[in-house]
Each structure stands twice: as C-alpha cells, then as structure tokens.
Amino acid sequence: MKFFLSGNEAVAFGLLETKVRFISGYPGTPSSEIIPTAIKLKKQYNLKGYFEWSVNEKTATEEAVAASFANLNSAVVFKQVGLNVAMDPFMNAAITGTVGSLVIISADDPGPHSSQTEQDSRFLAFFAKIPVFDPSTPQEAYEMAKCAVNFSKENELPVMLRTTTRISHSRKDIEINTDGFKNDLDIDFKKNQDRFAATPHFRYLLHKNLNQKIDKISQNNTPKMFFNGKTLIITSGVSFAYLYDLVIRYKLENKITLAKFDMPYPVNQDNLQKTVDTYSDTIVIEESYPLIEMQIKNRTSVKGRLDKTVPNEGELTIDTIKNILIETKILNTEKSDIVKPPFKKPSLCPGCGHRSAFFAIKNVFKDDAIYTGDIGCYTLGINLNAVDTVHCMGASVSFAFGFDKAYSLANKKKPIVATIGDSTFFHSGITPLIDAVHNKASFLLVILDNSTVAMTGNQKTPSDSEDSFDNPANSIRIEDIVKALKIKFFKTEDAYNLESSEKILKMAKKFIETNNEPAVIILKHPCVYTKEGLSKNIHFNNVFVDEKLCKGCRICIEKFECPALVFDDTKNVVKIDAATCINCGQCVKSCPFNAIRIEK
Amino acid sequence: MKIAILSLGGMGAISLSKIIAQIAINSKLSVKSTEIHGMAKKGGLVEIHMKIDEVDLSPFISKNEADFIILFDAMYKDYALYFGNNIIGLTENDKNYVISKFKDIKFANSFLLGRFIGAQSIFTKNDALKILENFKNKDENIMALEDGFNDI
C-alpha cells in the first residue's frame, strides 16, 4: 500500500519493520516526527515496544545502548545539536560495540533553518569510527533505516543514519508492506565485564577491534556510478538528488559521471583514489562538511569545499549546485539568482503566556538587567528585549551563574534574569541550578512553564501524568525539585496575572539585590497552541482598539509585540487582526491610553 | 505538474498539500513534496513545493517552473512570482468571507483547494470530495471547497 510519508515518518516505518522495539530521544527540529510515528504505529499494529521521549539526549542514548546490550533492536533520535549532548555515551558505544542493533538518527539542519549550528553529524560518526548512511530522498530514508538496522546487527556496531531538513521534511509516496511488523523478541543480556565494564587496560583491545571492523566495512564500500561524462562528481545525501535532476534537466549525461556514496564513511580509500585518478577533473559536492572529500588521499585534481569551489556555509540548494556547475564550466546557462523569501520576524503566538511573562519581567527589570535566555519558543523573548543570550540547552542558568561571578569579582552588582522553559529545565537546567545554590550565585531564574515541548510540536514532558500511550506516568513537579534544593526565594504564579506576577518579580528583585542566592519564580500558563490549552484559555467576546483613543504611538506593538496587533497606515491607528487574535485580552495593559478594550 | 504553496502558519497549508497528494495517489500518480517553516508556530511563512507525475528525485521548484502557485497571503505575492505567474490566491475579501462563514481561517485550505481543482485539468472535483468526505469537519470543508470551486 502507498503512503505519503515524510522522511521522518519513513524512517519510523523502516525501523519498526526491521524489529526495532526500543526508540528513545529528545524533540528537536527537524527530527521530531520519528518517535510520534513509531508511537502511532505501535497503537495501530498492537506492537510490543518502548517508544518514548526521554529527558535529554544523553539519557536517551544510554537507555538505547542498554536496550541494545540486552539484545533488543534499538534506536535513538535527535537533532544534530542533540548529538553533542549525547557525545559521551555515543563515543563509548562505538568502543564497546552493540548486541541488538543500535541506530543513531541525527537530523542535520544546514541553512540553518531552526538550529544554532550547521554542523555535520557525519563528522561525528567519523570521529567515533562508526558507519553512517546519508539518504538522498524520503524513499532512501526508508530503505536506509532498514539497512542501518541490519548493518548494525551484522557488524555489532552502532550505525548512524544522518538526515537533513530537506529529507526529514520532504514527502513522497512510498510503498510499505505492513505485514512486516513482528512481535517475537529474544531479550538476553550476556554478562561480559571485559567489554561492558572494561577498564582502560582492555579499552585498547576494544579500540583495536573497532578499527578492524571499520577497515573491513570500508573494503566493500564503493560508490554507485551514474552517467558517463568527463567530469567526476562525487556526492551523497540530498545533494545527489539535486545533481541527478540537474543532469537530466540540462542533458549533461555526457559531461558528468556521478559517484554516489550511500555510506559516506568509511569509504574504500584506495578504490576511491583509483576512480579519482581516471578522471581529469573531480568535484566533491556533499551537504554540510567535506567528509568524503577529506577521505581522498591525493586531492590535486579535486575541487570541493576545501578549495572553496563549494561554499563552506549555508545550505547546498539545487540552485547553489547549479551555480557551481556553471562556474566550473560544466553547464552553460544563465546563473540562478538565489532568491530568499522576504524576512518576517518570528513571534510568539498570539495569547502565548510567555509573552505576558516577558512583559511583566521587562516592566520590573527594565533595561538594567542582563537577560540570559534559552532554547525553545521563549528564545523569541528577544523581540521584547528580554533575552540577551541564547547559547545551548540549559545555558540560561549557567550563563546567569557565570555573569554573576564575573561581575562580583569586580565588586559590581548587576541584576541577572534567566528564563527557561519547563522541558529545557528538565533537560539541562537542573544541574546548573544545583551549582548556583551550592556556590551561592545571585540571579533570578524564571521558569516559563507551559507543560509541553511547544516549539517542536507539543511533545510530553516529565511533568505529564500520562505517557505517550495514555498510561499513567509519575508526574515530576518542578516545584518539588526547586523545593528540594531549598531555594530561599521561590514563588509560583499564572503568567496571565500580570499584576501579581509583577509584584513577586519586584520581591525577587529585592531578594537578589540583598542575597548571594538564586531566586526562582515559576510563571505558568498552558500553551495556547494546543487544543486543550486554547479551549481552556480565557476568551473575551471581543478585543478591539478604540480608534478615538488610539494615538498611533505603537507602544503596544513595540512593548507587547503580539502579531495580532497590526498598524493601519491609512488610519494611523493600531488594529487587531481577527484571523490571528484569540481574544485573550492580555494586550490591554500594554496601552498607556486605555485604547485597547475588551467586551466580556 | 509542479505546485508551490505559500502560506502563513496556522492556515492549513500542510493539510492542503497532503490532500492534493492523496488525490494524486488515488489517481495512481507519483507525488513528492517538501515543506519548510521557520521558528514561529503561527503567522510565519510556510513554503511547500510539490511535484505530481514528474520524474525528478527532488521536489524543489526553481524559477518560473511552477504550473500553479497557491498563495494564502498577498504579503508573499512578489516571492510567488519568482516561481511563476499562475497564482491561485486568497484575497483579503476571501479571507474575511472564510472567517465570517466558518469562524476559523483554517477552512481557507479547502476554499483554495476548490479554486485549484477548478483551475487545473488532471483531477476532478469528485477526486477531491472523496478525500474530504473522511474529514472530521467534512460539511464545512466540502462547503468551503464548493465556494472556492464555484468562484474562480
């Protein structure tokens, strides 16, 4: 039967068909749809299997490694920066090897479209010395997911499946055989201390064993060849699909030979060198970093990223690749202008509780504070000038620590306000808070709690009282964690209650001015992007601008920054956009002239 | 057939692309698409490229290649023209019509589906109705489709 599947959905189908029955991970664009698809399929086909979000990528990876040691086919799923968090168990899994399959799915985001870095996960496969598959289309993502599972089992090694945004978020009609889901499992952990608890003395032997496996795998890894032209283009991943389409479109079959690696590491270097040496010109075009290119030993006739024929930053789109073919005189046509859509500043949703929280924080701390932010929807607090730094998961808390200690060395007192979401707090905000309490750092931490991982599609968090299969789960309360740390200033408020939020923020300000201790406030409000959150949200009959009172000063637009507040240039007043406004009335307080009115 | 869809988050463009894909699959035609959306959950640009019954491996559409551009918001008109001239658009009046009749801008997708079905010649209105009949809000969606179809 044919399904219209995204690359991510196709990966989930592939994993389940090859009997992967343990999938853990942490949400992150563009990887987030793999686990929900597995959850859906488990329900639909009544499968035995553990498919669930974990608290962070390191934990998720360790859980999956152990499941593999117990002879269960396993996978772990995250975005590329999630792999950075998982590096410790990831590196060691290559050394110990695996028992049941272990597939590491890392979704890269060249561009970047929604990430901090453009890093190439394939380089980390190379670094760990594990094989990596690099699909060109959602169809290949499906096939390579199955290949990766089998390859891992055969070689007793973790195998990486690297996708990119354009694979994860593209769709294709894919023929799926749904009879392939089996339920027979053979769980058995065979103890072996020399392997699973090896002391450094034995690690050398395990490393030697890994090197032998990788050498053997590389022997058989030669590229698939397409077309028959004078210039050799070596490629893999999504870049292959673009090159293939360009060859057909511009009839370059007699000008280009394409060499495609399904597995860009480890390649057979001697064989690759022989191929390169038979062509007068070679170009390597691969998405992200020059992984195949750097495995070519003699690169004197090779063009690519290293000699800057291929740009070293940004996404390799079909138009960018077309322009490379024009510049290298393979293609003779007019260059494509790289047109990007008009930039529109991203904003928090109309009615988002985070906006109200930032508005209150800004009213109390003004422009005096250093605002350390974090990764999630609330990064968009930048629009209210209530976020000065965004670095990595959990860094709002550790940055607040670092700033406080740096300023106090110079005997300077600077108010510092950290903002972090609930899921990010669980992910990696707890450990720096422990450090701050123990080492007496003075700052205010505001936990913006909307009880969901909103940015990546409203996944569940550890505070949920149900798991992804609606079974009861133990709800972990952030309040209890904060209380266990004996934080001396701790309050909770609904972010929509602007007046009381401001009151406790003022108290917290005084507390951190006079104490060398962190203060914590939880500002809660359910995510209005969820059906449940929206249906329970306060909903006035109408929120409107009284045009007689509106001075056209734009204070509401600048200070409150709700996308439903739009400026009407013809009338010189603000109006409310009916298509996006959810009638929450939170903007009322942002107008000093009481021009925003509500009808109850 | 090559289709570009430009929309704002929350208006149902991704569902629209899935409906068109299902119509293609039911007609035994190959289909592929790609979608990209930025950080904002609501109101940000959602850009979808679709190819139906094309041999290409990649769903990307280059300059002047689109047979149709389905445009949910006039704000991206200039960008739409990069892909081609055949724009199936949602005017400010259409938008107000959809909001006042269906109380949710989400039904703009079925309205534009109707317009698209009327404009092209591969699929029939019945092909589209077959998909919408399985929808939760099938009555509203079918009504919106008819409205779009009858008003080209």
- Largest sheet entry of chain A: 6 strands, parallel
Reported for the largest beta sheet of chain B, the result is: 5 strands, mixed
What is the CATH level 1 assignment of the largest domain in chain A?
A: Alpha Beta
The CATH superfamily of chain B is Pyruvate-ferredoxin oxidoreductase, PFOR, domain III
Model description:
The complex is a heterodimer of chains A (600) and B (152). Chain A has four domains: 2-219, 3-Layer(aba) Sandwich (Rossmann fold), CATH 3.40.50; 224-327, Rossmann fold (3-Layer(aba) Sandwich), CATH 3.40.50; 353-536, 3-Layer(aba) Sandwich (Rossmann fold), CATH 3.40.50; 542-599, Alpha-Beta Plaits. Chain A contains 21 helices and 22 strands. In chain A, helix 16 runs parallel beside helix 17. Chain B is α/β, with parallel strands linked by helices and 152 residues long. Chain B contains six helices and five strands, in the order E-H-E-E-E-H-E-H-H-H-H. In chain B, helix 1 crosses helix 5 (125-132) and helix 4 crosses helix 6. In chain B, 49% of the residues are buried. The model of chain B has no long low-confidence stretch (mean pLDDT 92). Classes of the chains: A alpha/beta (600), B alpha/beta (152). Chains A and B meet through strand 8, helix 11 and helix 14 of A and helix 1, strand 2 and helix 2 of B. Strand 8 of chain A pairs antiparallel with strand 2 (31-37) of chain B.
